[in-house]
Design a protein that fits this description.
Blueprint: H1 20-31, H2 40-53, H3 56-63, H4 71-83, H5 92-103, H6 120-138, H7 142-147, H8 156-173, H9 179-194, H10 209-233, E1 241-242, E2 251-252, E3 259-260, E4 272-273, H11 276-290, H12 304-309, H13 333-336, E5 350-355, E6 363-368, H14 373-388
Antiparallel strand pairs: 1-2, 3-4, 5-6
Helix pairs in contact: 1-2, 1-4, 3-4, 4-5, 4-6, 5-6, 6-8, 8-9, 8-10, 9-10
């Protein structure tokens, strides 16, 4: 018997509106915790009833009532702009403008602001919607970018990614770990790795501390689930090495016969394949483990200086060992009469990056567990100056 995908029996007298699927999908992605389970037909019926009772014109009147307005109405109007359900078209900028009434006390006109009436839960949802909006801008096609009315200076992708991350971090700080928060966090992680850094382990990771606190445990949950799945499925002889592609059946007594996945999945979860064709065939299954949270192509960030700035070592930051004593607390050169030591006892590894035009990926990464932060920065500046110095004729 044939089955239709994503077609749900909702009963009689249920009106389906244009883009209602996007309305429900974005709502699921933003306003609920990622562990929450839902009955999709019930959500569909509830959305239909709500959209029938509250047409967008009526809702917009309530959204523009100023300080007497209802913060939940602002959220609903933003959701309609994001989904294009109940509006003339999908309008990301309209959603962000609407959300200013909850998130920006300086919004104009000032009578629109209702943030003082909103609970932390409502504000968390507003940040989730704003993160979704910037994520949509980040992944928009060129044609969709041309329809955007807001002009963004500098690197567009970097701007949108950092805005999305800031809203996702604020959402996590308020206690809502929704699917969109995790997706933005995983995207930040992937972009950092593409630039040769793990942003979650850098000193300045504190800029997005709540986001990393949400992402890293989720990553371990994904790996743990995959290990349980493999343990249930592993029935081969310990001396056998098997191609991971379903249906292949290729076996060997030596692992060197197979090629391992070159991705960033944990070593014990790396699948091995007998051919490139089998690796491509198995990618849909392995992708959630190898690139968690990935949905589509990772955006290309060309503003490398801004991204690398997120991983710089900063004077006065707390030592990663948790002692609470900063490097700068030992006294300045003027106070001690001595120059700061270039080296210290082994400690946590510190990393700085510098842009070098002809280097692989355009940058050089310096790692040390003994160099002080000021010494690392000095070394980075020297390398950067050398890279910019034209060769002698």
């Amino acid at each position: 018997m044939a089955h239709n995908i994503n077609v749900y029996p909702t009963g009689r007298n249920v009106t389906t509106y244009a883009n209602m699927d996007k309305y429900v999908s974005i709502k699921l992605s933003c306003v609920y915790g990622y562990r929450e389970e839902h009955d999709y037909p019930t959500l569909w019926r509830e959305a239909s009833a709500h959209l029938t009772k509250w047409c967008s014109e009526r809702l917009l009147e309530h959204a523009n009532q100023g300080v007497q307005g209802n913060p939940e109405v602002v959220l609903d109007m933003a959701l309609r702009y994001l989904s294009g359900c109940g509006t003339r078209r999908q309008n990301v900028e309209g959603a962000l403008f609407t959300l200013d009434a909850l998130l920006d006390p300086q919004c104009q006109p000032s009578s629109r602001y209702v943030g003082q009436l909103a609970s932390d839960t409502t504000k968390a949802k507003a940040h989730a919607f704003a993160g979704q909006a910037y994520l949509m801008k980040l992944t928009a096609t060129p044609a969709e970018h041309r329809r955007q009315t807001q002009l963004i200076t500098g690197d567009r992708a970097t701007h949108n990614l950092l805005q999305a991350a800031q809203h996702a971090n604020a959402c996590a700080e308020l206690g809502l770990i929704s699917p969109v928060v995790l997706r933005i966090g995983f995207m930040m992680r992937e972009v950092g790795v593409n630039h040769g850094v793990d942003l979650s382990t850098m000193v300045r990771s504190s800029l997005f501390r709540a986001l990393w606190i949400a992402v890293n445990p989720r990553l371990e949950e994904i790996y743990a689930q995959e290990r349980r799945t493999q343990a249930r499925m592993d029935r081969r002889s310990p001396s056998d090495f098997v191609c991971a592609a379903p249906g292949c059946g290729f076996r060997s007594e030596e692992r060197t016969t197979l090629r391992a996945c070159a991705g960033r999945c944990p070593r014990d979860l790396k699948p091995h394949y007998c051919s490139k064709q089998c690796q491509i065939k198995d990618w849909a299954r392995h992708k959630p483990t190898c690139k968690p949270g990935s949905n589509g192509t990772t955006p290309v960030i060309t503003d490398q200086g801004t991204m690398l700035n997120l991983s710089e070592v900063e004077d006065g930051e707390t030592d990663a060992r948790g002692s609470g004593q900063s490097r700068s607390s030992a006294g300045t050169e003027e106070e001690t009469g001595e120059r700061p030591l270039a080296h210290g006892p082994p400690g946590p590894e510190r990393i700085v990056n510098t842009v070098v035009p002809n280097a692989p990926r355009g940058s050089v990464q310096i790692r040390s567990n003994t160099l002080a932060p000021e010494a690392l920065r000095s070394l980075r500046e020297e390398i950067s100056n050398l890279a910019q110095t034209p060769p002698a004729s």
